[in-house]
Amino acid sequence: MTKLRLWKQLPSTLLCGLATFQLLTKAHSFPSAISLSRRNLLLKYPIAIFTGMTQPTKYDFSEGSTSAKASLSSKLTGADDSDIRWGIVGLGDVVQKKSGPAFFKNKNSQLVAAMRRTPGKAQEYAEKKVNSYTGNDKKIDQCVGYENLEDFLKHPNMDAVYVSTRPGSHLEICKQVAAAGLACYVEKPVGRCAAETEIIVDIFEKAGLPLYTAYISRAYERTQAVKKLLAADGSSPLGDRVTKVSYKLVGTGGARDMGGDDQLPWRLDPEQSGGGLIMDVGCHILDRIDYLCGPLVDIEGEAQNKNSPDQKVEDYVHLTASIGETKGRPSMQQSINAVGAKVECTWDFASPDQEPSDQLVLEGPSGSLRMIGMSPNAPIEIYDSDGNLLRKLPEFAMPEHTAQALIQAVTLDLLHLRLVEQAEQHEGTNVDTYEKPDFLSFGDNAIRAQKVIDTVLESYYSGREIGYWSRWIGEEK
């Protein structure tokens, strides 16, 4: 097992959490992969931590995946050490609806700090959204609002930070988060180009700190259902392999904050976003194809501005690629082979002549799967090789907050790292690395998704180096 840099000393009573953590992982359908010398540990220490366990999840966490490459440097000093204490930077619409509530509603998670530069807004969020929440059955820390990053990062007992600002600010914020010794969960896209994404990932690797990335659709119940339909046990309706993956979007794909005033939406300003809506919307589909089938290789494509004279960024992207070999991803061995499958994706964000559409299709020699691409709960249709509908998996449960499942898994992963480090300080306690849920999203998959996007945008922007947004003034209309 990789030796983890030890956290600051925690109370010895935390060791009882190791035993209960094994129970917690069973409640989540984790394998019993933590070898704890269980009998001796239970005899020696009472079970007194991890009150309020979560209900069993519907996901299968039995596969391993790329592990977080680093450990945490903790600022914990007592309190309830069965929780991860989070802080949030940025309180935009995504936080308000999709992700923010998960940090104070999930089990073993607290939201203790929030930061927004607008005077009073962070404290208002803390009081009205977090501190007024009555769903917790245990004593929790009060959330505090901050208006500058320096004070926010000094908040006592904070373990990890969720960066949910515009991509153009991610690099500088992540530098300071890492310098403060905190783990990080950063919104997608992680950087405005692949080079910037690689720098952010490298910062946390060198600091010895975990970095998670917010490709939340991996953790949807529906995505896990698709993964099971691709199982290499002879049951897949596609047959023994994936032969083609296709995706077409006509419309904005649910992108937020796209109208309502005369100001250009920030998602269409490359200095803030890194490009057009392909950066905000397209990256999810590319990451999901990568997760389900494997990495995209042999990428070719084009980007154009066809129908948007009021903006400079592209509004149309088309790419072709193939699925490449997977390395270091044991979960892929349990799925039907997709290596060599052809990939074709089209995003038409501003077509005046077509009805809105959104369809992801996976094909094999025996049949196909068809579904809405940008939905957490829409049905999955299963067809035979002649195009006849065989069956339809009905709508899945709509998550209360769409990022909640991934954030819960990240929180439990951080908690596991803490317990491993504490256990290593005590003789006779043997702790092996538990098998991570394979849908956890790290820096490596974020880099792969961004490299695909950069390849198809390269010509449009005459390069995708760091700072291209400052020299690029847009295509002539």
Automatic annotation (TrEMBL):
InterPro entries: Gfo/Idh/MocA-like_OxRdtase_N (IPR000683), Gfo/Idh/MocA_oxidrdct_glycsds (IPR050463), GFO_IDH_MocA-like_dom (IPR055170), NAD(P)-bd_dom_sf (IPR036291). Pfam families: GFO_IDH_MocA (PF01408), GFO_IDH_MocA_C3 (PF22725). GO terms for molecular function: nucleotide binding; oxidoreductase activity. Residues 260-324 form the GFO/IDH/MocA-like oxidoreductase domain. PANTHER family: BCDNA.GH03377. Belongs to the Gfo/Idh/MocA family. This is Gfo/Idh/MocA-like oxidoreductase N-terminal domain-containing protein. Residues 84-213 form the Gfo/Idh/MocA-like oxidoreductase N-terminal domain. Keywords: Oxidoreductase. It comes from Cylindrotheca closterium.
